[in-house]
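Action item from last week, closing it out:
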Amino acid sequence: MDVPELLESVSLLVPEEIATENDITVGDIWDYLVHDEWEIALGLLEELGDGHPLPLPFWEKLADAADQLRLERSAAWCHWRCSEIRNGVIRADLTLRPAAEARRTTPIPSPGVLRPMWDIGHLSPTGEPAVDIAGLWVEDMPYLEPGGRATVRLVPLTPSQWKHVRPGERITMHEDRTVAGTAVILEVHLQTAVRSTGIHSSASA
């Protein structure tokens, strides 16, 4: 599909009754589509999707449209949301160690490119700490400096390994054997979790 077809297809997946914080509905978005305002329409569709749970095809097609329009950050966000739907998502308050105390001396970029290891309490057969991988997206910031603090979104590589994690727990981030940062769990939404909490995104796309 080309961009117009993709955005029209995405729009058909949005219930007419939902709206953005500024009361923009899918009916308003159709007006932009009629006038070939593809980027505006895509941005508003993202906003609708961030405020309301929409199905995986919504984000897959929106990602395809963003890729074709070469909107790199929007494309990254849409692909990330696809990963959240497939694997679940955990929100946490992350504090990085200062550059003088850790391996990392450069900022962490926001758009979900980093997949660090996390100590969430598992042990190896020999009794040593065993880490688990989860991708990381920094909310509301273009990057997170060493020593900085931000709310982050984590998408586990193996969701079943995270099913015991609960809000309020403290976990550590690793890029090697040393601790790179410490995070406090805020919300958990995993398909494999015994208990879960619904999440409405507050991240900037």
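Closing note: Residues 88-189 form a domain with the Elongation Factor Tu (Ef-tu); domain 3 fold (CATH 2.40.30.10).
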